[in-house]
Design goal:
By secondary structure, this protein is of the alpha/beta class. It has one domain: P-loop containing nucleotide triphosphate hydrolases (Rossmann fold). Helix content is 51%, strand content 17%. The relative contact order is 0.22.
Length: 224
Amino acid sequence: MNIIIAIDGYAGCGKSTLAKQLAEELHYLFLDTGAMYRAVTLFLLENDIDWNKGEDLNSALDKIHITFYFDEQEYKYYTLLNGKNVEEEIRGIAVSNKVSEVAAVSAIRKFLVKQQQEIGKQKGIVMDGRDIGTVVFPNAELKIFVTAKMEVRVQRRLLELQSNGIMVSEEDIQNNLLKRDRDETTRLDSPLRKADDAIELDNSELTMEQQLQWALSLVANLNN
């Protein structure tokens, strides 16, 4: 039985890593909604568009097409913005500093949520983000809410950025994460929160393999 798996949580907690691993193990589609918001942010920044100006924003959204590409040789997902690989650009600090502001804009959320819901109609999908279990797929068969200690999140994000050749200080990363936590939990439209029926996972002390096995056991219990 194919299901929808919704994974929500704070930035830097490893949601995307868990989602990718689960999708691989289950032969499901993986959809990184955070990358979608980052791609929109990148487009708006590069084209000097004020996301608080409705008319300019609506015109810009008509020009945005986001897809995902899985490179089987590198075994890695890439985000494509209008056909261009922007995976490195969307992970930079410039986008990270603005993505929470962009994601708080209702028109942008509606634009992307509609796409996400359309993709999920076929089920057999793992989707991670901030409002997957509460807004995008409130009826998802499995909901996981991921948390981790701040110091762990900082180190994980530092390693992620360094692996992409991006040099940034731990202080800048922590300030960015704190700002994003504040922005994402207090925004009026679809704030980050744990769904009532979500299962919480604090993965501060877990390896990637341990958290994967934990999640796979939840899937197995659903199918029994």
